[in-house]
Design brief:
With 720 residues, the protein is an alpha/beta fold. It has 15 helices and 34 strands. It has three domains: 191 residues, Immunoglobulin-like, CATH 2.60.40; 320 residues, Glycosidases (TIM Barrel); 129 residues, Immunoglobulin-like. The strands form nine sheets. An eight-stranded parallel beta barrel has the order 12-13-16-17-20-21-22-23. A hairpin with a 4-residue loop joins strand 1 and strand 2. It is elongated and about 90 Å long. The chain starts with 15 loop residues before the first strand and ends in an 8-residue tail after the last strand.
């Protein structure tokens, strides 16, 4: 089958398959290979037409140029070299391999024993090479013409303090949306539909963060149980989109989605997984990297190169300490940033990206240093999940300036407080104000803290107040998967309740949690569907539920909750006091008797050290000074705002708060009260006793309007 096709030496750069208008240059890195064959397939990817040996080897890159090849051509690689797992080499030319730089894949992956480089079931395990061909079960790489007409589309460039993130799944958000035509449901084009975008725009979010969209593999144990990998954290190609997400062309569909979202002022962030691949541990399949150059692409174990380091919990860890592997990751990021125009990235298990031969070292990480100096990537939104599964992998607050980090401590503290746990107000105060104790170094700002109460991994907001225990039986793992540390409260009844008072309390608790999130300093992230009251029936690990459990149900919308979330986001947008660009200092504002923040007791006085340490404390109140709360970066002018009073009560009884003084002629006006039966904006005088209902949150604004007949409390305002 070796071809007679004319092939020229070509170039070692760029890597991948590159169409130049006349032909295609193929370039593949492998430091330890002995020969590389390019396999060309028919239009359906079913029949291998020809094998062409890449003629040149330069700087550890195999390359060749085919002048007769055009966009649309399907291909794959077979790489020759030693099969010696004990030395870290797993070359097997009987296995068709995916190009690590493939821009698009054609066809679906089908599980077969032929994917393994060894003979499964052999007493010698992975030490004996398997000679069966796997090509018929593999997706094929497609040569791509990347031309696309962007028109007038531009990046929204939303400033960090103004950012509100919406974490969503392409299929999960669109599979049941009534405004998405059937063929486009679950695809990029589905997400680009006016009805979906209009919901995001009316909600007020600025940025959508998509769960992994890179081409991936459904784990075999899931397929055997009739399930599939829904979340997508099992990648096999870092430049290609997952085929199940496009209706016609992954390249064109994705760009169309980005363009339409940008035209609506909405940014697009990708959740990316560079910590591991779908090839698993030493007993996993040979699909790409393992068969191209196992010893270079992966971190091999301290017990010998036959085994892998496993900081991801998925069997392997990519070796970003290797310059070519680092290059691949950086090229991938720049491809999505420049060619596909995404606005940022959330890095899954980002701590693993800073690991090298000597272990974990954020201070000397080649990856972090390279990103920090990159003229393209350093200007985008960069978000770290600041941990991995290594013993020293929890690194919250340890990422360099320029990064935002998922603040898991924020999530846990807020959840625990609203379950009614006492003695947390000190920690809660730090979380509400941007976690300066964690991020207040190196010139970092409050936006370094990416705050969330729920995310894809765990309970939805509705389930957080409905279940205390996980209910993951549908995953087929005997309910052993998923975390047990939910910090959830079911309000007195596990699961759906027939009792109206419990259902009402759950609605209030959900509002308390959402209001806390959206009124905290830092960057809030909302889980898609939480604004609608979405439930996963108590499943806190729906990674394999590509069905009604994992999809957003648009037919059952909690309209009250939706309106509440919209109002909160609008309140945050209109009032910069809730999204300050600097940490609080507790000092008097220039030219004002007000401090930037004052913590108060229910008696209305400023809190003392003794108040902070009360073990039974379950309420917290603070005044946000609106004068000079922000500086316009372009004009240098001070941005003025109203002064707000925020009150939180996780106790089961009403707490009366004495309202602080206000300037003569002003009153406190209620903006939010999760305990109130309606949204009436009542007015209260300074010194009045405000009844903060049990398990509720209230926000009062210092209004310049004189209290009229609708006011309550004292007959006269108290001067400040």
């Amino acid at each position: 089958m070796t071809g007679r096709r004319r092939i020229l030496p070509g170039s070692s750069y760029p890597l991948g398959a590159t169409w130049d208008g006349n032909g295609v240059n193929f370039a593949l890195f492998s430091a330890h290979a002995e020969r590389v064959e390019l396999c060309l397939f028919d239009a359906l990817g079913l029949r291998e037409l020809e094998r062409v040996v890449l003629p040149e080897y330069s700087d550890e890159v195999w390359h060749g140029y085919l002048p007769d090849i055009r966009p649309g051509q399907l291909y794959g690689y077979r790489v020759h070299g030693p099969y010696d797992p004990m030395a870290g080499h797993r070359f097997n030319p009987h296995k068709l391999l995916i190009d690590p730089y493939a821009r698009e894949l054609s066809g679906s992956f089908e599980w077969s024993d032929t994917h393994f480089g060894f003979r499964p079931g052999s007493t010698r395990m992975d030490l004996l090479m398997d000679r069966r061909d796997n090509a018929r079960y593999m997706p094929k790489c497609r040569v791509l013409d990347t031309a696309f007409t962007w028109g007038e589309s531009r990046r929204p460039n939303v400033a960090w303090p103004e950012t509100v993130i919406y974490e969503a799944h392409v299929r999960g958000l669109t599979m049941r949306h009534p405004g998405v035509p059937g063929p486009w449901r679950g695809t990029f084009l589905g997400l680009a539909q006016p009805g979906v975008i209009e919901h995001l725009r009316k909600l007020g979010i600025t940025t959508i963060e998509l769960l992994p969209i890179n081409a991936m593999v459904d784990e075999r144990h899931l397929v055997d149980r009739g399930l599939r990998n829904f979340w997508g954290y099992n990648p096999i190609a870092f430049f290609a989109a997952e085929p199940r997400y496009y209706a016609s062309s992954a390249h064109g569909d994705f760009k169309t989605m980005v363009s339409r979202l940008h035209d609506s002022g909405i940014e697009v962030i990708l959740d990316v997984v560079y910590n591991h691949t779908a090839e698993g541990n030493h007993l996993g399949p040979t699909l790409s990297f393992r068969g191209i150059d196992n010893a270079s692409y992966y971190m091999l174990g301290p017990n010998g190169p036959r085994w892998y380091e496993n900081y991801s919990g998925c069997g392997n860890t990519l070796n970003l300490a290797h310059p070519r592997v680092l290059q691949m990751v950086m090229d991938s990021l720049r491809y999505w940033a420049e060619e596909m125009r995404v606005d940022g990235f959330r890095f899954d298990l980002a701590a693993s990206l800073a690991r090298g031969p000597t272990g974990f070292d954020l201070g000397c990480s080649s990856f972090l240093d390279t990103v920090r100096q990159d003229p393209v990537l350093s200007r985008l939104k960069l978000i770290a999940e600041p941990w991995d599964l290594g013993g020293d992998g929890y690194r919250l607050g340890g990422f360099p300036p320029g990064w935002s980090e998922w603040n898991g401590r924020y999530r846990d503290t807020v959840r625990r407080f609203w379950t009614g746990e006492g003695g947390l107000i000190g920690d809660l105060a730090s979380r509400l104000t941007g976690s300066s104790d964690i991020f207040g170094w190196g010139g970092r700002k409050p936006w370094a803290s990416l705050n969330f109460v729920t995310c894809h991994d765990g309970f939805t907001l509705a389930d957080l107040v409905t279940y205390e225990r996980k209910h993951n039986d549908a995953n087929g793992e005997h309910n052993k998967d998923g975390t047990d540390a939910n910090y959830a409260w079911n309000c007195g009844h596990e699961g759906p309740s027939p009792y109206p008072e419990i259902r009402q309390l759950r609605k209030r608790q959900a509002r308390n949690l959402m209001a806390t999130l959206l009124l905290s300093q830092g960057v809030p992230m909302i889980l898609a569907g939480d604004e609608l009251g979405r439930s996963q029936k108590g499943n806190n690990n729906a990674y394999c539920q590509d069905n009604e459990v994992g999809w957003v149900d648009w037919s059952e919308v909690d309209e009250d909750m939706l309106a509440f979330v919209r109002r909160l986001i609008d309140l945050r947008r209109k009032h910069p006091v809730f999204r300050r660009p600097r940490f609080f200092e507790g000092r008097h504002l220039p030219g004002s008797a007000l401090k930037d923040i004052v913590w108060i007791t229910p008696e209305g006085r400023e809190m003392t050290q003794a108040d902070w340490t009360l073990p039974y404390a379950r309420s917290l109140g603070f005044v946000l000074g609106g004068e000079s709360c922000a500086i316009d970066n372009l004009t240098g002018k001070e941005e003025m705002d109203d002064t707000f009073l925020v009150l939180l009560n996780a106790y089961h009884d009403t707490i009366a708060y004495t309202l602080p003084p206000v300037t003569l002629g002003r009153v406190w006006e209620v903006e939010v009260d999760t305990f109130a039966a309606d949204d009436a904006r009542t007015q209260w005088s300074a010194g009045a006793s405000f009844p903060l209902g049990p398990r509720s949150l209230a926000v009062l604004r210092r209004s310049g309007r004189t209290r009229g007949g609708a006011g309550r409390g004292h007959d006269e305002e108290r001067p400040a």
